[in-house]
Amino acid sequence: MKVVVTGASGMVGKGVLLECLDHPDVEEVLSVGRRSLSMTHPKLKELLHTDFTDFRPVQAELTGYDACFHCMGVSAAGMSEDDYTRMTWAFSMALAEVFLAANPHSKFTYVSGQGTDSTEKGRSMWARVKGKTENDLLALGFSHAYMFRPGAIIPLRGITPSSKLYRFFIMSFGWLLYFIRWLSPRSVVTTTQVGKAMIHIVRDGYNKQVIDPADIQQLAGE
């Protein structure tokens, strides 16, 4: 399969990218981002694009792919609802609409988060925005679309979290995630598991559209 990955400069996207590059069922990976990843691999291609509100100028470059693994995201900390909506909902819909037009039979996965509000009416701003993004992506018309809600994530394979806050947490209290996983094995996932789960759900399908940590582990084969 040929896949597009967004957000590969971030923690989750980098994990998904590395698993795609290693997986025998993935023959080509197109990384879409604002800046180069500064890495080379026989399977890897890069598309540098700066205006995430409009992907129409690069529709031709996005044509010919089986799936998009949309891992791009920002923290809501300190952001207004308008800015967070633009960088979460608007960016995601702009990409998804053009990708679907270019690949009518394609599949789409989106990295959301535990606590996302599917009703779009709760008190939490980020949860409402994520909920709207999930709902609108599911209604867009992909043959299959899956919303990943991974919760706590342990970065593996030398990946460093792009968020300063999460990076500090991992460096200072990363042991706590392993302890939580020991207490509740199904509550914490790794970047490797997220990557494998995305590949396998696109390849094999699944009986749910909203994917929680237990689903991620099952899809990853662990």
Describe it for me?
It is built from six helices and nine strands. It starts with a strand and ends with a helix. It has helices at residues 11-22, 81-102, 125-138, 164-183, 191-204, 213-220, and strands at 2-6, 28-33, 44-48, 67-70, 107-111, 144-148, 152-154, 188-190, 210-211. The chain has one domain (2-220): NAD(P)-binding Rossmann-like Domain (Rossmann fold, 3-Layer(aba) Sandwich). Helix 1 crosses helix 5 (191-204), helix 2 packs parallel to helix 3 (125-138) and helix 5 packs across helix 6. By secondary structure, the chain is an alpha/beta fold. 41% of the residues lie in helices and 17% in strands. Strands 3-2-1-4-5-6-9 form a seven-stranded parallel β-sheet, with helices on both faces. Strands 7-8 form a two-stranded parallel sheet. The protein is globular. The longest helix has 22 residues, at 81-102.
How many domains comprise the coordinates? 1
Number of helices: 6
The end-to-end distance, rounded to whole angstroms, is 22 Å
Percent helix, as a range, is: 40-55%
Note the topology.
Layout lengths: L1 E5 L4 H12 L5 E6 L10 E5 L18 E4 L10 H22 L4 E5 L13 H14 L5 E5 L3 E3 L9 H20 L4 E3 H14 L5 E2 L1 H8 L2
Parallel strand pairs: 1-2, 1-4, 2-3, 4-5, 5-6, 6-9, 7-8
Helix pairs in contact: 1-5, 2-3, 5-6
What are the main properties of this structure?
single chain, 222 residues, alpha/beta, Rossmann fold, seven-stranded parallel β-sheet, two-stranded parallel ribbon, 6 helices, 9 strands, 41% helix
